[in-house]
Design a protein that fits this description.
The chain is an all-beta fold. It has one domain: Beta-galactosidase, Chain A, domain 5 (Distorted Sandwich), CATH 2.70.98.10. It contains one helix and 31 strands. The longest helix is centred in the first third of the chain and has 5 residues.
Length: about 375
């Protein structure tokens, strides 16, 4: 795969694009209305191999992703719902674009200079994924990009969810003929503000609703991680994974060491931890590989971000009735969220997430699907 950065279709935007996109077809269809009467559309991307991705304007959210197994049979590998109503009723960020700041901010507070900002505490004592009505619950504007992808745009006003600055955001989804779903992010602000955007799909390579991901094999290209307290907030330390249950530098079955996870260092019944990726120069590099032996499907994730959050669907409890009427229970999906580290705005030794006027925020993540 050859990837190049090309000048985007939005002034000042550089985005990740593939040289091989001519086979991708993009169509648009209505998907319903919000409770406030806002129309929601869904965009369908299909490449020459029949791989299909659907993204809707509500939450710039990936609703479906159909990829082949080793026999060429397609299956939808992301958790979600058949209709807009399922998403409007509330859900654990299935397929969503999350932010302004993805992951957690301790105590729902941060400072810029001498000024303190207070955010919603929507995750116990902490702020999570942008607040009560973050980017995942906004209706975005969308534009088809020369038939190869879709640009989703949203302008978050100064003070929205407690964040300072008018933030102009773009998220670009592209599907290549090499079976890569590329998600690129860009933002600018008129006032200093923290920004940390990510994609929050729950993957199950055996197919959405087919059971747990405990037998999937996972590799994460990270020698270190950030330990957390009981509320999921990093302690500020950066620790080596070697000789610990956090080590995925070699492929391991996801559920093989759940019983060894200390309750004080994560959730009983799974992982919810940030890994510090080994790539140091912000270039596109392999972050993780996920493999399902039953189907032969492989997911490779490449990113320009310094971290990736491993979350094994620990809080899924069967209350979400998803596609085809299937209930999503504990560990039925895995999230691999490329990001800056959690609570970075309050952690001076973590890579910074403060965006200032005149600067551009950008990062790229590639989801590459293979079989073996």
């Amino acid at each position: 795969m050859q990837l190049i950065r090309i000048f985007g279709f939005i002034p000042g935007l550089f985005l990740l694009a593939s040289c091989a996109v001519p086979g991708t077809k993009v169509t648009k269809a209505p998907f319903g209305k919000t409770a406030d009467g806002e129309a929601v559309d869904v965009y369908t991307l299909v490449n020459k191999n029949g791989v299909k991705a659907k993204i809707m304007t509500y939450g710039a959210l990936l609703t479906e992703l159909h990829v082949p197994d080793r026999d060429g049979k397609l299956a939808d590998v992301v958790l979600g719902f058949d209709s807009l109503e399922g998403y409007l009723a509330g859900h654990p960020y299935f397929g969503a674009t999350t932010g302004r700041v993805a992951n957690r901010i301790a105590g729902g507070k941060f400072k810029i200079g001498d000024k303190e900002y207070t955010l919603a505490k929507n995750n116990g004592a902490n702020h999570l994924h942008g607040g009560v009505k973050g980017l995942d619950k906004r209706v975005w504007k969308a534009t088809i990009m020369r038939g190869s992808g879709v640009i989703f745009g949203y302008k978050s006003p100064d003070g929205e969810e407690g964040y300072p600055g008018n933030l102009d955001i773009r998220v670009i989804y592209k599907l290549t003929d090499s079976n890569e779903l590329i998600v690129s992010y860009w933002a600018k602000t008129d006032k200093a503000t923290p920004v940390n955007l990510t994609h929050h799909s729950y993957f199950n390579l055996a197919g959405a609703g087919s059971g747990t991901i405990l037998e999937h094999e996972l590799m994460i290209a990270a020698d270190h991680y950030t330990p957390i307290d009981g509320g999921g907030i990093p302690t500020g330390e950066i620790k080596a994974v070697k000789d610990t249950v956090m080590d995925f530098t070699k492929p391991m079955k996801i559920g093989s060491r759940f019983d060894k996870l200390p309750p004080s260092d994560g959730n009983p019944g799974g992982y919810d931890h940030n890994y510090c990726l080994s790539s140091k120069d912000n270039s596109l590099a392999l972050a993780a590989t996920l493999y399902d032996a039953g189907s032969g499907r492989v997911l490779e994730i490449l990113t320009t971000e310094p971290g990736i959050q491993l979350y094994t669907g620990n809080y899924l409890d069967g209350s979400n009735v998803g596609k085809g009427g299937r209930k999503y229970a504990k560990n039925h999906g895995i999230c691999l969220e490329t990001q800056h580290f959690p609570d970075s705005i309050n952690q001076p030794n973590f890579p910074p997430i403060l965006l200032k006027p005149g600067e551009n925020y950008s990062h790229d993540t590639v989801h590459r699907f293979l079989v073996k």
